[in-house]
Amino acid sequence: MKKTLNIGLIGYGFMGRTHSNAYRKVSNFFDVPYKPVLKTVCGLDEAQARAFADQWGYESYCTDWRQVIADDTIDVVDICVPNNMHAEIAIAAAQAGKAICCEKPLALNVAEAERMVAAVEKAGVANLVSFNYRRVPAVTLAKQLIDEGRLGRIFHYRANFLQDWTISKDVPQGGMATWRLDAKAAGSGVTGDLLAHCIDTAMWHNGAITSVSAMTETFIKERKNAETGKVEPVGIDDACTFMCRFDNGSLGNFESTRYARGHKALYTFEINGENASIAWDLHDLHRLSYFDHADDSIVRGWRNVHVTDGDMPYMGKWWVPGLQIGYEHSFVHQVADFLEDMAQGKPTSPTFREALATQRVCEAVLTSAKSKSWQTIKQP
Amino acid sequence: MKKTLNIGLIGYGFMGRTHSNAYRKVSNFFDVPYKPVLKTVCGLDEAQARAFADQWGYESYCTDWRQVIADDTIDVVDICVPNNMHAEIAIAAAQAGKAICCEKPLALNVAEAERMVAAVEKAGVANLVSFNYRRVPAVTLAKQLIDEGRLGRIFHYRANFLQDWTISKDVPQGGMATWRLDAKAAGSGVTGDLLAHCIDTAMWHNGAITSVSAMTETFIKERKNAETGKVEPVGIDDACTFMCRFDNGSLGNFESTRYARGHKALYTFEINGENASIAWDLHDLHRLSYFDHADDSIVRGWRNVHVTDGDMPYMGKWWVPGLQIGYEHSFVHQVADFLEDMAQGKPTSPTFREALATQRVCEAVLTSAKSKSWQTIKQP
Amino acid sequence: MKKTLNIGLIGYGFMGRTHSNAYRKVSNFFDVPYKPVLKTVCGLDEAQARAFADQWGYESYCTDWRQVIADDTIDVVDICVPNNMHAEIAIAAAQAGKAICCEKPLALNVAEAERMVAAVEKAGVANLVSFNYRRVPAVTLAKQLIDEGRLGRIFHYRANFLQDWTISKDVPQGGMATWRLDAKAAGSGVTGDLLAHCIDTAMWHNGAITSVSAMTETFIKERKNAETGKVEPVGIDDACTFMCRFDNGSLGNFESTRYARGHKALYTFEINGENASIAWDLHDLHRLSYFDHADDSIVRGWRNVHVTDGDMPYMGKWWVPGLQIGYEHSFVHQVADFLEDMAQGKPTSPTFREALATQRVCEAVLTSAKSKSWQTIKQP
Amino acid sequence: MKKTLNIGLIGYGFMGRTHSNAYRKVSNFFDVPYKPVLKTVCGLDEAQARAFADQWGYESYCTDWRQVIADDTIDVVDICVPNNMHAEIAIAAAQAGKAICCEKPLALNVAEAERMVAAVEKAGVANLVSFNYRRVPAVTLAKQLIDEGRLGRIFHYRANFLQDWTISKDVPQGGMATWRLDAKAAGSGVTGDLLAHCIDTAMWHNGAITSVSAMTETFIKERKNAETGKVEPVGIDDACTFMCRFDNGSLGNFESTRYARGHKALYTFEINGENASIAWDLHDLHRLSYFDHADDSIVRGWRNVHVTDGDMPYMGKWWVPGLQIGYEHSFVHQVADFLEDMAQGKPTSPTFREALATQRVCEAVLTSAKSKSWQTIKQP
User: Fold this and answer.
1) D223 lies in the same domain as D316
2) Is the pTM value of this prediction over 0.90?
3) What ipTM was assigned to the predicted interfaces of this complex?
């Protein structure tokens, strides 16, 4: 009989659903060392928490997150609340000796993130930040190809995360559905929400970012508050572009916006190496583009790889070649790795410490945009 | 409290997994009138049946399908065994008053299929054949666009189902993994396995097929038997192409093969109407191509629709725009509709009777190929 | 100084323009052994013939094609008139000892085509039929890849030629612009106009077609005559689908229509071999899709080859890698090869005799559709 | 009879060929007010100049560009030499009262460019800089769509120009074939060669660029001189990325490199407006991507427009819908417009003055990269 692992989920929004689904599904597909049990879900609104518990099969629900921390039966605290609450909850959970899975970005700022890292490292608890896109099989495959040395020296890393859902000035800020537009809850706009993903993947693929020059813009200057109905200034960045240099000498170009009409959630990256290049986009996440200069010149071209075969990362666990998986599966993979590493006492990447490095880049980006100057990032 | 619905699954292969996943997941995403309970799984090998039950959370397992039929607590019998066993099991299940979900193709031939239809209709039990591709949201959307009259008069329906997994002569026939290559178990090759899907979708989209002219080929004439190791003649069609006429005057062109190097499971269709056209392919199942002649001529072109928005079929239940679902979700939708219809006492399409119509076309196709003549199909 | 070669063009329509452009341009890019001189153009309407001569720099014009044949200074007779006039002009030109470039399809029917072949072979004159798509670099590259044996045993050849320009019932038949809809002038509809191209390329790539089963349809049964204004029955095939077998054991699937909403001139082919596959489409004629099963499995996928490099067929003569050529260039290549072969006394493919083989397939296709039976094609 | 216009071409390299082709071809397709006559070609090497004249039908050739300027019969001086010679030749040509077509970028720097503008404006001669990509029909169509207001407020302009031809350290610098790698001849690397195109198109589409922050890199620090064989430091930028702000409040993101493995000449742009977006790439230059938010939500998607219809810019002059043109045609359109405007006494865009604005942005980009600071651009 497998050991069970009791999950306490804090936050029942969009991410609460993706994490719940992952815990429920992982054992059906992966041979994981623990059996996750959906023990309790916590959220501000009791009726909603109850409904969520019912829908997902949580054994109980509550409305005070401290109750989850205090519950001795809980093994893993999973944090899916707005960014401004990550630090407090995570630190408390660490002090209580819980393993922690925290949604990204790790924190509102570097100072908070540093305290969180200190807390989990002091407590010696398993800790993971949910930069889920690393575990889209095509993205993981990209990492594998780089690590195998297939690209050779890397010259360029380019990433975009383009959306269009806030173009209308009638979209409010704040509240349950639109807290991502509220600077107090979110800390920043696209930089923390979207570029953080790009930066996490980029540094995983291509090493540290050492300096940045950024530009941000808030296109719609004021919006109605979803809760109060009052029109208030918008504090977040609607769009952010930055150039950077990586430690390995390659150049980076990153852009994110919620004003790119026609793109719903188009996260793309492209890596150009001396011998080969790789490209990917989230709108067709089951594909990877690969160009190999070593191919015969008359039949050389970008290869469109349908990442659905059993010898590709994670794909041996799903269906048969040609049958694609989707967005939610990246969270299943994340949980599978988290459980496996936990059993072996190994850290699961990205840890809080790794996410702190991403936080440093995000903060440098925002500082650069404000100061209109290049910023150097020192990763200690 | 929702009423439970006890599921008895017969067959723990690839399809057994897709169906189990669907029953487990449906309540988390859809507001279904019943709560499916994974009651028992049945398969030939006891160890495998036990392992499957364990992996998926079935309460029990057995090795004799008659036991499932005899079990009074079972509400739904789900048939995921090779084609040659569909008839016997389904007829017994009908006689026992069970609701039935049967994998496609319905039967080995029209005669069997007719007996199955008679059985379920006599028993008055809910019955459904798992032509799951109808419930890929993009495919359902195509149906909706046709029903809205957006295409106008339809001239052409084109469908292909291309694979490449049997090109090597070392692939055996028969046995658990390759029964689809064994004429005795499968009845036919690509015609029943792949073209049946294309035909089901086509007749749903475009009405009855009235005549066909077909050509089949078996490229590899003999293969080793996976169980006996003996080299035996191959009895199935490796490839099948057919032309047809639809009742509405449009022309059809269908092709399937397992010898199309480079295609894993490329099911495609394209429908050309007077005013608009639609195209889809399974390798990017979350997209639909749409061409509308009414667009301004200077900006007229095929639209690449990312079928991930909440107002598209089934998609309001999943994530947010831009985040794709995958293959397995079509089965979840199938179960959601099955449960909903069952509660309302309505048939769920495609019923056994509708699948019989597809069986008639398949049989006419095989007869045409053998006789090298056009065959007329009479749907009574 | 290069020897000049005097061109007499008969027909100043769309094809007259493509051929004139080719003769004018070829020397600027290719090191051809002759310098083509645009000597005379002939067409029914004097004012239009004069305007055409002026626009393209022909030294003279006339309205009676016999005058071109009778002109001793003319070296090459280029036939760009409707199909029903090919035979008479070509036979006269052959008898007058002229080299001949004739537009496709060669003739109205096999009987005519046989007389034409006899005439040019008896006269020993250079003869070429303008199946220009063979000389789109990507199509030529496909031939090279097949000849190099990269595909191995071929299983499938699939070709479509889809248009949508005759969907409106207001398009007339007959006259200068729409003679292709007039059975008397064109001989057939899509079969001779479009499928002839597909068949020519297919037999060049994949060898002889030995049997066919076809289906044709005329969706709009009557149209106004462009010249008389009278509404008359439509005699051509609006759409034609056929299946076939090749001499090498592979299966063919061909379809053409002018009722495929959304496709302007979408000629596509795909060839599936044991080891590799190739696909191409005219709407992006500068690209070739190539799949090589020998690639490492984790980076295997269709390669999108941008056919613009100097080591690809014909491309060393144009610009630099990345810069595409277009439709008209296929005619320039055709002329370049024609002149080169002429200087060496070699036939240029496809000769009249090769085009006769295509004519036989076209005729078998039309017979099959009429008789609803398989037709065997004997190439003597 | 049309008036003739005598062309004197200076420089017989790659651009000399594209311009010669354009002059030769324009009258066959466009109803231009002048008949261009290829009068003389000038280049350093006499044998090559003679061969070029022969190939293209120039009446004469010479090796001293001053001879072209001094020739009273020459109406248009066409400058296709390396950038460091543009200013001297253009100023002399202006003083001699010649119409001038000059290759891009206009000059080595802003100071030179200003003197050139002063010269042509003082002389009152027709002047045009060959930013040919404006006249790719899809790019021109993009301009038309913007001018029609279809995009609404513009938020983002993104452009890349990616190549990979200098990745090998064995590519030399300097000489006839590789002067673009020689800072003395070219002035800069990708900034002047490639980004100048992007900037020209961007400001045409989206108005003035007002500030920039840039980053450049030289990946290969020294290369052999193609003429002397000596290894020398590389003075050009191999790659350049810049962010910018446009006068209309939109954000720009530009990148160019010759180290993007897998891209031959991939010039792309994307424009995101409030109501619609547009994207284009040079590798499929005959297509335009268009997204219109006003489309019904269930069939909304990027439209892939095949820019080959008669009602699209320039396309009424070429073939029929579905048949693409290529790279070289942009130069034909440029000449067609130049001749038409000349006859009407109107300037042809981009004039020297407009190209000076582009030069200012290029210079600011290079200054920004050097100083690691934002630069403001003042267009007087």
Assistant:
1) yes
2) yes
3) 0.97
